[in-house]
Structure formats: structure tokens, C-alpha cells
Design a protein that fits this description.
heterotrimer; A mainly alpha; B mainly alpha; C mainly alpha; A: mainly alpha; 10 helices; about 0% strand; C: mainly alpha; rod-shaped
Chain lengths: ~220, ~240, ~110
Amino acid sequence: MTALRLTWLLLKKDLRIAARSREMLGFTLLFAVLCVLVFAFGFLQEGTAAEGYVPGVLWVTLLFSSSVSLLRLFAAEEEGGTLELVSATSAGTVPLFVSKVLVQLLFTGLVTVVVLPMVLLFFNAELRGIGPIAASLLLGLIGQATVGTLCSALLVHVRLREVLLPLVLYPTVAPLLIGGVKVTALALAGAEGTRDWLTLMLVFDLLFVVASPWLHGRALAR
Amino acid sequence: MQTSPTADALRVPIRRPVAALLLLAIGLVTIEVALWWIATRTPSDIVLGLSQKIFYFHVGSAFAMLLGLSAASIMSLVDLLRPDDRADALARSFLEVGVVFSLCLLTSGPLWARKAWGMYWTWEPRLTLSLLVTLLAISVIALRSMSGDSHTGRRVGAAMAVMAAPASYLIHVAVKWWGGNHPQVIQGGGIQSADMRIAFWLAVVGLLTFASVLVVTRYRDIRLQQRAQALRLTLSAHQLRQRRA
Amino acid sequence: MFRTALLICAALAMMVSAPVFAEAPPAQAAAKVAAPSAKSGAAAAAKAAPPRDLSRYKEESVSGGSLLLAAYMIMWALVGTFVGRTLLRQAKVEAELTELSERVDVLTGGDAA
């Protein structure tokens, strides 16, 4: 079986599970909405939205809700022993990893589509500079999904993984968070200078898109 | 008899580390000389007063942290590429000693900043970087202690430590662009008084020597633990065989 | 022997370093040697700092000496804790090793270790 076909099969399986039991997606979306609400309670003063909170609220909400879905990303694999089975194929563990990144990307993409308008609405901001913002969201989500999947996969058999996952994930994706917030803030203000930050995010993505499957295979293959 | 990894670990020697003792003596003497030099020979700063003297061991800890954590990542990579008990033990020792000195860095830094910048903490690049890197290193240590002696835990911890290296570099770039005002003492050729230079290098050399003694001590400790684990395995294998017989 | 030596040296280092700084004369020394240090590394730090209103901080009561003392005490305490923990662990694992090798010897007649 070729690696590509195996990836597609694994992805299809996950999508089918997600489509049949919509709880995971639903809960993640609900969590994201609640997250924005909590931020609104925290940052709204005397009923009016303070300026300048949109980028931070958007990116932190995305990071938090991505870690919620990451916690369950490998649950079915753990129970079914998929990792052992996939490792036995000639394609190795890469197809499993890639399919999980794609699933995570899909989840966080949907969350973004819901959260972005909500944040803009609640914090009275006008959407400007859609190009850089879209680019930063794309790069940020890819990076978060890749590193997040790696952390989630590595921690599958570790005790207290729910606590350890954010502990490892948040410092690692700090460049993406800083870059994303900067680009969003600059774009919303109509300012220049987003290119450098987008390049940084791109470098981060390229690095971890290459390194993560390798590390995953190295660490977990028998 | 047990086979390869266990048999290998069984041969872990219980030597008295004489070289480490010598290093310890050198390190401590250097540190004492540095302390004496700092106390008697170096000038106090016009603005910062005595608190400027935190600088010497502050930068020394920064060096120790940087070296320790980099070495931990490298040894983890070695262990990941070619599993070796010694590389694993070294990686863990370097990681722990690196964290000890990064905690020194993170406590002495704010105390200096209180006088220099008027506040304990600013979101300045190097502060942010050291905080994030320390958190990463601590979580790798936590991961190792959570997973006990298990093979998976060891591989996973090594992978995390390897991942932390490029991540730290990118964090470094990101927080630098974020803007800040850390003194560029080393790059800018800032130390102009000869006494301060001597004190600085004495402190750095002494601290690094002391840190390497800590690494060696911890390494020996972990190796002994590996040996105990190997003995335990041998023991249970024998018991199993006897029960079968 | 190694453990005791390490412990004694660490304790010594702590004891020596603390009084050295406690005895250092605080404010006058700072004023006296201010001139040669004008171009020192730390002054560069103050220069590099943003144009904050420094006068506000000059009058505050935090003494550089106490900050210095606190920094050194905390650093030695951290290192000391680590050393202590390592030594305790070593003592434990050595005791365990002795016990284990005895048990292995009994079981195998001495051919395992």
C-alpha cells in the first residue's frame, strides 16, 4: 500500500468518525465560543470594548481550542492500536502523522471561521487587511497543528498528558503566537511591516513540517 | 544471562570520581577568588550601586544554562539516533543542571532589573526567551519523571528535547523582533575596567567548572540507577527461570 | 567520601559568599568609586534602557546591597538544593545496588554480577 493511499484511508476514517459523532467538533466549537466570551468579560470595561484586544483574543482562543481537540486526537488510535499496525506497513508512521495533522487542521480551520467574526463583532473591530490576516492564520494554524500533533502523539502513553501537553506546546508555538498577533494587529491598523513576521512563521512551519514526522517516527517506532 | 542493554548496564562501574573531586576543588577555588575579587576589587556602579555586582554570576549562570540545555538537546539527538544509556544519562544530567542555572538566571535577573530598570520584570527579549526555554526544559523533565523508567518515556523525552532546540532559536528571533532593552554587555565590548573583566571571567570559569561537576555527579547517579534497574531485570529473569525449572 | 566532600564544599561556599557581601560597605562605597565605573557594563545597561524618568528611581529605598545579597543567597540555595537532592538520591541508589547485588549473588551463585 502506498503512503499516499494509506494517508487518504486514515484521513477518511477520521472524517467519517467526526461526521458520525459530531460531539468532538461541537464541543471544540463551543469551547472556542466560551473562550471568546470569557475574554470579553475580562476585557470589556463599562460596557464598551477596549481597543486593541482583537489580535490577542483571536490567537489565544485559537491556541486554547486547538489544545482541546488535540487531547482527543489520538484517543481512537490508542484504543485500537493503530500506531503498531501502521508502523508495520512499509510506509511507516508518516501517513498516520500527516492524516492527523490534516484532521487537526480541519478542526482548527472550522473553529477559526466561527471565532474570527465573533471576535470582530464582540470587540467592535472592522476587518481590514484581509490578505495578511488570512496568510497569518493559515501559517499559524499549520504550525500549531503540526507541533500540536507531534506533542499529542508523543504524549499518548504518558501519565498526566492533559497537563503536560500545554506545558510543552505553548512555549514551543510562542513564535507563531507572537507573529500572528503582530501581523493581525498591524493589518487591522492598516500598517506595513507584516512581511517579516509572515516569513518567520513560514520558516517555523517549514522547519516543523519536516522535523515533526521524523521525530514522531523516531520516538515511537518499535 | 541477560542480553545486550541490560548486560551493558550491569557493567556500570561504581568508581570514586576522583577527577570530579579535582574539578570541584578547582571550580570552588575559582568561585571563591571571583567572589573575593568582586567584593574587593571591582567598582560599584554609579547608578546601580552594589546591585551591579549581581552581573558576574548572572552572566555566568546564563552561560551554564545555554551550554547545559544545548548539550542536553545534542545528547538527546544522539540517543534518538543510536540508543545509548550513557547518552540518555548525559542528556538528563545536562538538562537538569541547565534548569538549575536557568532558575539562578531567572531569580538574579529580576533583582538586578529592579535597580537597573526600576522594575522586576519587563517583557524584554532575553528575559522572555529564558523564561520560555526554562518552561520547556522543566516540562521535558516533568515528562521524564511522569513516564518513569519506561522505554517510550525515554524516547519521547529525547524527542521533546530535540524539538526544543529549533523552537528555542525561533523563540529567540521572535522575541528579539518584539523589541527590548537588554544590556548588550558582551557584544558591545561593554566591560572596560580590567578588574571587572578579570572578575567576570573568574566567575564564568568557576561557575562552568562547578556546573560540570554537578553534571558528572548527576550522571553517575543516573548511571547507578540504570545499573540497579538492570540488576532488577536480571533478578526477575532468574526468578522466572527458577520457577519454570 | 565524595558526598561528604561535596556537601562540605557547598556549605563552605555558601558561608563564605554571604559574609563577603554582608560586610561590603553599602552606600558610601558606591559614591566613592562612582567615577571609574561611569563607562562600566552596567552603566551601559542604564544607557540602553528606554528614556524613563530615572529621578523617580534614584530616591527609592531599595538598596543595591540587599538586592545583591538576595541574588547570591537565592542562587546558592538553588544550587544547594540540587546538590542535596542528588546526594540523597545517590545514597538511596547505592544502598539499593548493594542489596540487589547481594540478592543476585545468592540466586546465581555469583556468576551474574
